[in-house]
Amino acid sequence: xxxxxxxxxxxxxxxxxxxxxxxxxxxxxxxxxxxxxxxxxxxxxxxxxxxxxxxxxxxxxxxxxxxxxxxxxxxxxxxxxxxxxxxxxxxxxxxxxxxxxxxxxxxxxxxxxxxxxxxxxxxxxxxxxxxxxxxxxxxxxxxxxxxxxxxxxxxxxxxxxxxxxxxxxxxxxxxxxxxxxxxxxxxxxxxxxxxxxxxxxxxxxxxxxxxxxxxxxxxxxxxxxxxxxxxxxxxxxxxxxxxxxxxxxxxxxxxxxxxxxxxxxxxxxxxxxxxxxxxxxxxxxxxxxxxxxxxxxxxxxxxxxxxxxxxxxxxxxxxxxxxxxxxxxxxxxxxxxxxxxxxxxxxxxxxxxxxxxxxxxxxxxxxxxxxxxxxxxxxxxxxxxxxxxxxxxxxxxxxxxxxxxxxxxxxxxxxxxxxxxxxxxxxxxxxxxxxxxxxxxxxxxxxxxxxxxxxxxxxxxxxxxxxxxxxxxxxxxxxxxxxxxxxxxxxxxxxxxxxxxxxxxxxxxxx
Length: 511
Description:
Elements: H1 17-70, E1 74-77, E2 94-96, E3 101-105, H2 107-121, E4 125-129, H3 142-152, E5 158-163, E6 169-178, H4 184-187, E7 197-206, H5 209-301, H6 307-346, E8 351-354, H7 355-365, H8 367-370, E9 374-379, E10 385-388, H9 390-408, E11 416-424, E12 429-436, H10 443-446, H11 466-477, E13 481-486, E14 492-499
Parallel strand pairs: 9-11
Antiparallel strand pairs: 1-3, 2-3, 4-7, 5-6, 6-7, 8-10, 11-12, 12-14, 13-14
Helix pairs in contact: 1-2, 1-5, 5-6, 6-7, 6-9, 7-9, 9-11
Organism: Uliginosibacterium aquaticum
Keywords: Membrane, Phosphoprotein, Transmembrane, Transmembrane helix
Protein name: histidine kinase
């Protein structure tokens, strides 16, 4: 038969306050992690925006420098704002006309002028610098020195948030300026070669802390709202579920008691049928014995009685007496067994007993239920004993047998076969195998057989509690496990594992 995973309990009470506290703690941790990730994403997004903005400024400056270099420099009127460049060693640096004096603006000079205009119009700071400067004002600060060293080691750019002296933050960016052929006219004497890092352009702007802070506050408030809604909802749901569970538990208790009484009713029905047979035989035997006594009285009234007739009459009287005695003894044993079974069902005391005797009594009292439908084969060592609650085992076997008769075999079937095999695994566990060769179950039905109120015979008055009770008794009351394997047309097999010794009261009971 196909292997099936162990079934989980079909009904669970709502979580306790301790469990709810653990869930809330886990939920708090998840919200905190989510908030931390959200803040990290906000900060990273702000960083990426600032980085891309600085890159665009750098690209624009590099494009302007390339245009200037490709044109051999540009000329502007010499003035206080655009004085001749003392570090530009070119015979054509200055040009004079009748009306204008022009001075050459090379890429480096143009970069400084752009940086000056940017500082006048806003908070953007642009600084062209190098580790080997010609102009003192191009000297790098400490951050620029470190960044230039990183660029010369192969990094393509440096962009990061740094703290100002006044504890404000600013975003600083630097990318390298490489030496090309147009640069050698001014910088060849410094030992540069084409492809070397000549220096870099540093771009600084205030870190948009307020906007980032506002986004973080908004995300924090949103996370707090979600946390409070779910935490409050969980508390309200817990209270509602606890109330509903109490009501459900009360209703289930009544249904379980009703099913227990139904189980007792089935035992009573089987017992009464079994008891009728020996009592009927005993009554017939005693009636025959009474007729023999009447015949014996008639013999005594005769003058002569043959010894053969007297001996025959005495033999009949002895046989009828023995028949009545044996059947009355059988009836007494039935009453004793039924009394023990019914007491076990009503009581839930732990005691030591032999499993074979318990199962034999169940089969004897239920024989009227199954004998026209199926034959039951029991394989259980006579001396196999157990310390547990026998009444619970009575209910388990009763429900399994009734379930097979009701569901596994057709109404006209009379050749069904049920096999019950019980043994110990040698490690303190009792293994109970219960198998019938009935019509089996589909996978969809098999998945739900231990659910309360699930039945395929709703129209015929089925309660759907028989196998649920078996599951509850095995797993919750006796601390064992039960599994089911079945296929359509291949019968059904239950495997039950129970502890052989139960030193304390069953789960959920007080000792």
